[in-house]
Amino acid sequence: MVKVFQALSSGSSILKKAGSSSPRLDAELILGFVLNWDRIKIMTEGESELSGAEYESFLRYIEDRAKGMPIAYITGHKEFMGLDFYIEPGVLIPRADTEVIAETVIRECKSIDGQVSIADVGCGSGAIGISIAHYVKYAFVTMMDISDSAVEISNKNADLNHVKERVKIIKGNLMEPVAKEEFDFVVSNPPYIRTDVIQSLQRDVRDFEPHIALDGGRDGLKYYRQITMSASTCIKAGGMLVYEIGFDQGKAVADIMLRAGFSNINVLKDLAGMDRCIIGKKIC
Ligand code: GLN
After folding, report:
1. CB 3.0–4.6 Å: which of 24, 72, 82, 255 could bond 78 by disulfide?
2. Distances from the Cα of 190 to the Cαs of 23, 215, 277, in angstroms?
3. Which CATH class is domain 91-282?
4. Pocket flag, ligand 1, residue 193 (CB < 6 Å)
5. pLDDT tens, 56-108?
């Protein structure tokens, strides 16, 4: 019989050899997932024994991780804005740095009286739109994505986080499904990596996350141009356009927004102090 502490040490040594930067933590998270235990229990009940089936399944997931599969695709979950999101390989894993986008919209919503309408364009797992709906009880969020998996997973996440009655999830290309509607806010974390950079991304991202959610075209700005164009007619006077951006895209995206008539443009930083969010107002 293998004990918890032995499984952790063999799991983390496999991951260490495979080049993981956090082998012990990864092994703890994977074992916690297999046993359905939280991390504290994993760390404090080292003498407990695993069944043969549990140990086999642990080793199988350790092999997946050793090949670069992100933990969130193994466990099927990722925390974002203090909420639990169901995740699978068809959608990008929510990043901690993306919380600044959700927080910015939530903060701006507080300055509006009454109901607020928000469009989340290219919603992926639904992390941004659903956390806004969770924290702003008078927000109505329309979320859209061209990917069937994204629509399906966003629906699951809206259920999981009990906001189903205030979100609408539509399959469609960018803002086409809502071309005739008007919103107080349009928010998006579009694909923004330059096509020629995709191959040099970290293996876990490059080999496992959906390129459709990452590839922003030749200069990485393709979707900012398209969404900004639609947003300029779909945002109410006084409303705002909020994007996640790459660390070096602030100036280029600000120019796109200025040309489309947005003003009061501000670039905000992420946890690492890099430019990550841009916000602009539609005055009239
Ligand atoms: N920030 C993501 C990454 O680092 C990219 C997200 C995007 O293209 N929208 O992989």
Report:
1. 72
2. 31, 9, 12
3. alpha beta
4. yes
5. 999 999 999 999 999 999 999 999 999 999 999 999 999 999 999 999 999 99
